[in-house]
TrEMBL record:
Coiled coil: none
InterPro entries: ArsR-like_HTH (IPR011991), GAF-like_dom_sf (IPR029016), HTH_MetabolicPath_Reg (IPR050707), Tscrpt_reg_IclR_C (IPR014757), Tscrpt_reg_IclR_N (IPR005471), WH-like_DNA-bd_sf (IPR036388), WH_DNA-bd_sf (IPR036390)
Keywords: DNA-binding, Transcription, Transcription regulation
UniProt-recorded name of the protein: IclR family transcriptional regulator
PANTHER family: HELIX-TURN-HELIX TRANSCRIPTIONAL REGULATOR, ICLR FAMILY, HTH-TYPE TRANSCRIPTIONAL REPRESSOR ALLR
Domain IclR-ED, chain residue ranges per copy: 68-213
Keyword Transcription regulation attributed: yes
Length: 213
């Protein structure tokens, strides 16, 4: 700890991170051991976090992440979208196809940022807020592929006609961004994706990941 930081706030944030990493919650005793502080300190931290709905305790006394964290999480999308837009604009203009940033939202893929090219005669109308199953479409499949085979260098996923008849997609996962699981991709009206598109999408995903770090 330095003179400019708050020990209490640091401990509170550590509590939230510990609870976020478990599906079963933690007891006061377990938190005390993990934090290296006495139980009285843990009780005070939990009571404060409960007041803000960031932590809840079940009937057995186990602490879990509270629903207040979801309200904070909703504000993340605008920040992520703003950071991703420059790379998405460059991708859309370069390829001449609609570019998008897609994030995981529960069991679905959610498009949080979309940029359409300015110079094409026609392109796919793809809107921010569009949802689809993770196992359909290039955006979701790229995310699932990264889950199954985590790698430091991303590949790309190609699909055709899975979300819209006559449309093809290419997407690459975001890698190395703590707390964000998603992909960057393009969708175009064609029977196949040109060879250069896949590597270009990978480059755009890397640019977005760097902007989010």
């Amino acid at each position: 700890m330095t003179a400019e930081t708050s020990q209490t706030l640091d401990r509170g944030l550590r509590v939230l991170k510990l609870l976020a990493d478990t599906d079963h919650g933690l007891t006061v005793t377990e938190l005390s051991a993990k934090l290296g502080v006495n139980r009285t300190v843990v009780y005070r931290l939990l009571a404060t976090l409960e007041q803000h709905s960031l932590v809840r305790r079940d009937l057995g006394g186990r602490a879990r992440v509270g629903l207040g964290v979801l309200r904070l999480g909703r504000q993340v999308h605008p920040l992520v979208r703003e950071a991703a837009l420059p790379a998405l604009r460059a991708l859309a203009e370069d390829i001449g196809a609609t570019a998008h940033l897609t994030l995981v939202d529960g069991t679905e893929a959610l498009a949080v940022a979309v940029v359409e090219p300015t110079w094409t005669d026609y392109h796919v109308a793809y809107r921010a807020g569009f949802r689809h199953p993770l196992d359909r479409g290039a955006a979701g499949r790229a995310i699932l592929a990264a889950r199954e085979q985590p790698v430091s260098e991303p590949g790309y996923t190609l699909t055709h006609g899975e979300l819209e008849a006559g449309a093809s997609g290419a997407a690459a996962p975001l890698l190395g961004v703590t707390g964000v699981e998603g992909s960057v991709g393009v969708v175009m009206l064609s029977d196949s994706v040109p060879e250069r598109v896949g590597p270009r999408v990978v480059d755009a995903a890397r640019e977005v990941a760097e902007a989010l770090r």
